[in-house]
Amino acid sequence: MPKVSKTPEVGKEIEAHCKPCKADTVHVITTIKDDVVKKVMCKACNATHVYKPPVDSEEAPKPKRGRPKKTDGPPKVRRRRKADWGTLMGKIDQSLAVDYSMTADYGEIESINHKKFGVGIITKILAEDKIQVVFEENTKILAQNWEEQ
Ligand SMILES: [Zn+2]
Asked: For residue 133, what are the CA distances in angstroms to 24, 78, 81?
């Protein structure tokens, strides 16, 4: 912080923060102790108060430690997908699951057999060429209607 004047003197003008004015205004030094400005008088409102360094522009109330607003919502808890898979598995006929192939069209099919992930339930047709499949381990986005070139 740059000091305005090297040695403060009673009667000298100094910029200080004035509470009544809620602003940094010009003050006159009224009390000095050990070369430190103790009290000042505001030239704008004539109030004498303890010297407070300028705050920089408008009233900016210092935020107290901690957050002013508490967000006391619990952290995001997502349901485990495994449970979904189990539920979904109970609803489908596993014997109808078709072997997965990215070139096939799964618009009318509810479950697939994936070489790596096992039986999966198609929960969404995301796009012409994309399906969302819930596997025991995870939900995956797989390709469909893929044209091999
Ligand atoms: Zn004032």
From this structure: 63, 18, 11
